[in-house]
Design a protein that fits this description.
Layout (H helix, E strand, L loop, with lengths): L4 E4 L1 H11 L2 E5 L2 E5 L9 E6 L3 H13 L3 E6 L7 H5 L11 H9 L4 E4 L10 H7 L2 E4 L5 E2 L12 E3 H9 L15 E5 L3 H11 L2 H4 L6 H8 L5 E5 L11 H8 L4 E3 L9 H4 L5 H14 L5 H9 L2 E6 L2 E8 L6 E12 L6 E12 L2 E4 L3 E2 L18 E2 L2 E2 L5 E3 L2 H4 L5 H21 L11 H10 L7 H17 L10 H8 L2
Parallel strand pairs: 4-5, 4-7, 5-6, 7-21, 9-17, 10-11, 10-17, 11-13, 12-13
Antiparallel strand pairs: 1-3, 2-3, 8-18, 14-15, 15-16, 19-20
Helix pairs in contact: 2-15, 7-10, 10-12, 17-18
């Protein structure tokens, strides 16, 4: 049976779209609304706070596992997808293919996306809990971990999260303007984010031009004087957090040569016999790059390279050193460590030896951390997570968390997917087992809409986002790129409402 259709004025239909999440189609200057019969309307109301991977994966599993649930996704920014949009390296477009899955979720008949809603400011978590049977917090990790050393506030020292946000078009980082007028950059941390940053700093501009990196960042990188990047870790080669794909990209990066210290890899050949295969392959690649004489073609490539990168192990930051002006970074003092213990359980212990590296740029890639969103939500400041059991927030029935807010900033997108599915399973289990009272009706978004309207907040729907998406693609096509991201929230809102 086809859905009943009603012809409404534009204003009335748009209000109905917000309050019910129903689909609309423009028709002859009016708006055609596709309605559901009352018997098919979802009874259980769940909202997800955060429109990144954790939020969308949680929503996806809820919609699949429970046929009687309406899922509303609230996102602080007008644009969705979180770290897939703002964290994945621009030269890794294949990782962003997951956006097509998220788009299907957002277009689901029982799912609505409300961007430009800052939970904790525009609406409280308690107000959401009043309106929904269950609330899932999936807003990720927006904070930066501090090194806790003198000089880390100097000009020229940046958290990797902010640097990545700068070249990926995160509105809050668009004015970063990092100084790239130095020869040497030091990156603290040896995970995939650190390798991404090093690769972007050293990649040929002609390669970056083909990506969705922002034009502002591309122009700055084209003028960059950085020719050498050192990627520093406090432990040894067997504890490097990066994966083989990212390391291989560094090894093969055009116009660059590796600077690995052969002595730092002594004794590792014997260790290869007992370590797991992924770690073994990664270590073999480092050993080959650092120790084995290169073949003739590779030798010539390295000789012709104008840039270099290196891994430095067993080093921890002690102090960021200022230049003559006392304001800008000119170097970094590192403690030389030794390892106690073996494998992932090993601990870096200072030897008392210290070394100094001259550099004009320091990027700290030592981890993201979640921040508390609302005083009503329990939060562990030491672990920077919401205390939970299988995603259930402790002492808060009906409140859940998923993603990095649940576990801390670990793993890749696939890890987040499984983590979020587990939380969604807990929600479904509680909805169906009687742990949550679903006998009483909850208003869902119809209870939140008047609050936001009263506070002057105008949500952005997923169809509004698709207008932004279309405009970004149009601008990108004009420059031979996949997209040119809008960097200003007000411009996003203006485009969405055109």
């Amino acid at each position: 049976m086809s859905s009943p259709q009603v012809l409404l004025s534009k204003a009335a239909a748009l209000n109905l779209l917000w309050t019910s999440g129903r689909r609309i189609n423009r028709f002859n200057g009016h708006v055609r609304v596709i309605t559901r019969s009352a018997s098919s309307a979802a009874h259980q109301k769940v909202c997800v706070v955060g429109g990144g991977p954790a939020g969308f994966y949680t929503a996806q599993h809820l919609l699949k596992a429970c046929q009687d649930v309406q899922v509303d996704i609230y996102e602080r920014l007008p644009v969705p997808f979180g770290l897939v949009r703002f964290g994945v390296a621009p030269d890794h477009p294949e990782v962003k293919n997951v956006i097509s899955t998220f788009t299907q979720t957002a277009r689901h008949a029982r799912c609505c996306y409300y961007g430009n809603v800052n939970v904790g400011t525009d609406v409280s978590v308690e107000e959401l809990r009043e309106a929904y049977h269950a609330v899932v917090l999936s807003y990720g990790a927006e904070g930066n971990r501090s090194m806790g050393v003198p000089g880390e506030d100097l000009e020229g020292v940046y958290p990797a999260k902010d640097f990545v946000g700068w070249y990926n078009g995160l509105p809050s980082n668009r004015e970063l303007n990092p100084g790239l007028d130095c020869e040497t950059a030091v990156i603290l941390g040896q995970g995939n984010v650190a390798l991404d940053v090093a690769r972007i700093l050293l990649s040929p501009i002609d390669e970056l031009k083909k990506t969705d990196i922002t034009q502002r960042s591309l122009d700055a990188l084209a003028q960059s004087q950085v020719r050498r990047v050192l990627i520093v870790g406090r432990r040894g080669p067997l504890q490097i957090a990066g994966t083989i794909k990212e390391l291989r990209e560094m090894v093969n990066l055009p116009d660059t040569k590796p600077e690995l210290v052969a002595s730092e890899f002594e004794g590792l050949a014997e260790a290869l016999k007992v370590i797991p295969r992924p770690r073994k392959r990664l270590t073999e690649l480092m050993l080959k790059t650092a120790v084995d004489p290169p073949a003739e073609k590779e030798r010539q490539r390295r000789q012709a390279a104008s840039r270099s990168w290196g891994l430095r192990f067993l080093r921890s930051p002690l102090e960021v050193l200022a230049g003559p002006d006392g304001a800008r970074v000119a170097g970094i003092r590192l403690a030389v460590n030794r390892l106690e213990g073996t494998g992932d359980g090993s601990v870096a212990v200072p030897t008392g030896e210290v070394e100094t590296v001259d550099c004009g740029l320091v990027i700290t890639s030592i981890g993201y951390k979640s921040l508390p969103i609302d005083p009503a939500v329990p939060f562990d400041p030491r672990k920077a997570i919401v205390p939970n059991s299988l995603g259930r927030v402790q002492q808060a029935p009906g409140l859940y968390c998923s993603g990095w807010l649940k576990t801390g900033p670990i793993g890749v997108i696939a890890t987040t997917m499984n983590n979020s599915f587990d939380t969604a399973h807990s929600v479904v289990e509680d909805l169906t087992s009687g742990c949550l009272d679903v006998t009483s009706a909850k208003p869902g978004s119809t209870g939140i809409a008047p609050l936001l309207d009263k506070r002057g907040v105008k949500p952005v729907s997923f169809s509004d986002w698709e207008k932004i998406n279309q405009e970004e693609r149009r601008r990108g096509a004009a420059q031979g790129k996949p997209r040119e991201k809008l960097l200003d929230v007000e411009e996003m809102l203006k485009t969405a409402r055109t």
